[in-house]
Amino acid sequence: MTAGLKFYAGYPITPSSEIFEYLAMKLPERGGTVIQFEDEIASINAVIGASWGGVKAMTATSGPGFSLMVEGLSLAIMTETPLVIAYVMRAGPSTGIATKSGQYDVMQVRWAAHGNYELVVYAPWSVQELYDLTINSFNVSETLRVPVILLSDATLAHIWERVVLKDPNEALVINRKKPKVSKELYKPFEPEEDLVPPMASFGEGYRVMVESLTHDERGYYKATTEIQRKLVWRLINKVRKNMHMLVDSASYFVEDADYVIVSYGSTARSAYGLVKELRSRGVKVGLYRPKLLWPVDEESLIKSTRNAKKVFVVENNAGVYVNEVSRVLRHKEVFSIPVIDVEIPPPESIYEVMKEWM
Fold first, then answer.
1. Are residues 265 and 334 in the same domain?
2. Structural domain for 283, as ranges
3. Pair 12, 123 in one domain
4. Considering the entire predicted model, what is its pTM?
5. pLDDT tens, residue by residue, 249-270
6. Which of 11, 298, 305, 317 has the fewest beta carbons closer than 10 A?
């Protein structure tokens, strides 16, 4: 709401339902609208429609619900629709354990939708970061006209912590670009220098096209290699070339570290505890924590591990993000520490696997 949210559509699903319940009480008091739809497919499409109606819009879900949303996600990517999805992971596959945690869906959020594209995924590790990165997710989505996913998990959903709230001015809220040209000259998908087209909404008098088919800058369907190539590369590069506004990470004790742990989300809390414990024993170990999971912030990852002899990727899954770390740090020894736990993996569980390779 601080970021300017005015429309929420969703379907209840543990462990994300508290977002829905809270907004149902509070958002109408701020002039917004909350609607429960019959399923997640309808919800994501309603969010797309609301965004084109000119308001900031979002939904929230968990694994099974996100699986139903991915066709709508691909539609939002192609139509360059700003929206935010709060994805609260739980133990899976299928319905799994609805009230328990896991980090199984890190690859799903990046690759589930069909087609070539880039989107943005953030992974907070605290309630404060949930708050701050929600605002940032809206800002990035509005600026680049891309869906942004805030990826947390049941552990974070159930934590109570102190949070510093902000007013909109302090939060530096950003709104989407509007057309500067006349209504006669406006082309719905004509980009500016940053590769992002200004966005006219329905009802503002502009000729608005929301075309899911391959289209030119006017929004007209064109089934040619030239148009497809131009469009797809722009959808990708408008994110890649604006990485400076996306990157966000934290590193701890990496300057002199012989070993660096890479971990994200709630699991990084345990990894941080282990790092401090090992440091007290004289072991030179550090932690690199990406807050931006996708696209991968390769520069900060390389910088934070430059002095490390070995890198350990700690995840509450069977080992998935380690593949990206290995790709980036291809000249280093990278080891996967997959610790599947329905709560938050304790530091001892991480160390039991890690010490074998140290």
1. yes
2. 252-357
3. yes
4. 0.97
5. 999 999 999 999 999 999 999 9
6. 298
